[in-house]
Design a protein that fits this description.
This protein is mainly beta. It has a single domain, classed as Deoxyuridine 5'-Triphosphate Nucleotidohydrolase, Chain A (Distorted Sandwich). 9% of the residues lie in helices and 37% in strands. It has three helices and 16 strands. Strands 1, 3, 4, 10, 12 and 16 form a six-stranded antiparallel β-sheet that branches. The protein is globular and about 45 Å long. The two termini are 31 Å apart.
Length: 184
């Protein structure tokens, strides 16, 4: 397993083993592809409610915001779910990690709390971002903001397990709240 160069990533895109829509070669850099904040964010609503991941009916509630209509101000200590503007699809021997951009991180923003792994064998879908403001400033989030990067790697052989059927988020077209009940 090795991290891919920009040339290798471009080659896999041309072979349709990686899908990035929309794709712009200027966002392809050494070992990474830069992604941008997509149209929708979800703001958790039921503050103080007990969410029990072992109970199917227990689920968080979210309010949906459209960043094409209005930018969102993320206050210190606030957590939201965002999405990439790009749809990402992967062949069964190719996977990615998503990571925040250093300029965004220097404002105190993280874009994933622990779910940075994008498994192989994915149909084109957006990546839900777990955005948290650990900084001291309000940060304006707007549609198309450069928010992070995808780091691509390939396995030495095809995986035995097909992640298309194991991933409840596969194929998502908008930011998606927790689906832990489907994984019980």
């Amino acid at each position: 397993m090795s991290i891919l160069t920009d040339t290798e990533i471009l080659n896999l895109i041309q072979q349709k083993k990686i899908t990035i829509e929309p794709f712009n070669e200027k966002h392809l850099r050494a070992g990474k592809y830069e992604v941008h904040l997509g149209q929708y964010i979800l703001k958790p609503q039921n503050k103080g409610a007990l969410i029990d991941p072992t109970i199917e009916g227990s689920k968080p509630e979210y309010k949906k915001f459209d960043l094409k209509e209005e930018a969102f101000i993320l206050k210190p200590g606030m957590f939201i779910l965002g999405q990439t503007n790009e749809l990402i699809g992967l062949d069964s021997d190719t996977a990615m990690f998503i990571d925040g951009g250093s300029s965004i991180a220097r404002l105190g923003l993280t874009i994933h709390q622990s779910a940075s792994y994008i498994p192989p064998g994915q149909d084109p879908h957006i990546i839900t971002l777990e955005i948290y403001n650990a900084g001291i400033w309000d940060v304006k989030l707007s549609f198309g903001l450069r928010i992070g990067k995808l780091i691509t790697f390939r396995f030495n052989q095809k995986n035995k397990t097909d992640e298309r059927s194991n991933n409840p988020y596969n194929g998502q077209k908008e930011a998606t709240g927790s689906l832990f009940a489907k994984m019980i």
